[in-house]
Amino acid sequence: MIQKFFCYVDETGQDTRGELFIVAVVIAGQERNQLRQACEDIERDSRKGRRKWVKTKYSRRLAYIRQVLERPIFEGKLNFAVYRDVQDYPSSTVQTIARALSATGETDYKATILIDGLPRSLERAVGLQLRRLGIRAKKVRGLKDENDALIRLADAVCGLVRGATEGQPAMRALFERGMQTGVLRDLSGEQKMPP
C-alpha cells in the first residue's frame, strides 16, 4: 500500500546573507491529525498560541518546545539541516526535503509538500526539482505560518536550532535533549552544528 506523507517546511537565516541557513521539515503520515492536535494542545498549554516563533515571548518558546520534545508522538518527525556559507536557499530547501523523505526508509509513497511562504509561481518548479531527485512529490503548495499548527511547529524547530546554533544556553540544552531522545533528526550531513 502506498504511504502518504505530508511535509511541513520552514527555513530561517536569509537575514545572515548565507552565513547560516536552517531548514526544518516536519513529516507526518497517518498520524497527521494526532500530531496537529498535540501541537494545538501544546500551543494552548504553553500560551504560545498561534504566533510565529519570533513574535512569541522567550519563556513561552521554551515552554512550547520543551513540551514538544517530551512527547513520544514527535519522535523521528522533526528534521532539520544547517547550512553555512550557502546562498542558494531554494536548492538547500529542496535537498533537505529530499533527505527527510529518504530518511523515512519508505520507497512506495506519495508526498504533499507544504512550504511556508512559497509563492504560487514557484510551486511547479520546486515539485519538478524534487521529482528530479527521485522524490515522489504529489503536490507542492505554499502555506502561511498562521494557518496550520504543523507549519508553526516547523517554524519552532527552525527557531530552536537557530537559538542553539547561536549559543543560547537554554535552547542548546533543549536541542541536545531532542537529539539524544531521537525527537530531532539532523540531516545536515557534513555541515554539522559546531560543539
Describe the 3D structure:
There is one protein chain. The protein is of the alpha/beta class. It has a single domain, classed as Nucleotidyltransferase, domain 5, CATH 3.30.420.10. Helices cover 43% and strands 23% of the residues. The chain has helices at residues 32-46, 58-70, 89-103, 123-132, 149-165, 169-181; strands at 3-12, 20-28, 78-84, 109-116, 137-143, 184-186. Strands 5-4-1-2-3-6 form a six-stranded mixed beta sheet, with helices on both faces. Strand 1 (3-12) and strand 2 (20-28) form a beta hairpin. Helix 2 runs parallel beside helix 6 (169-181) and helix 5 (149-165) crosses helix 6 (169-181). The radius of gyration is 15 Å and the shape is globular. 40% of the residues are buried. Mean pLDDT is 92; it is low at 190-195.
Assess the beta-strand content as a share of residues. Answer: 15-25%
Q: Can you write the helix and strand succession as a string? A: EEHHEHEHEHHE
Spatial strand order of the main sheet: 5-4-1-2-3-6
Report the end-to-end length measured between terminal Cα atoms: 42 Å
Q: Number of helix segments?
A: 6
CATH topology: Nucleotidyltransferase, domain 5
| Domains, number | 1
Largest sheet: 6 strands, mixed
CATH superfamily (homologous) name: Ribonuclease H-like superfamily/Ribonuclease H
Overall, the morphology is globular
Radius of gyration: 15 Å
CATH architecture: 2-Layer Sandwich
Task: Name the average pLDDT.
Answer: 92
Structural class: alpha/beta
Please give the share of residues in helix. 40-55%
Low-confidence stretches: 190-195
Number of strands: 6
CATH class reads Alpha Beta
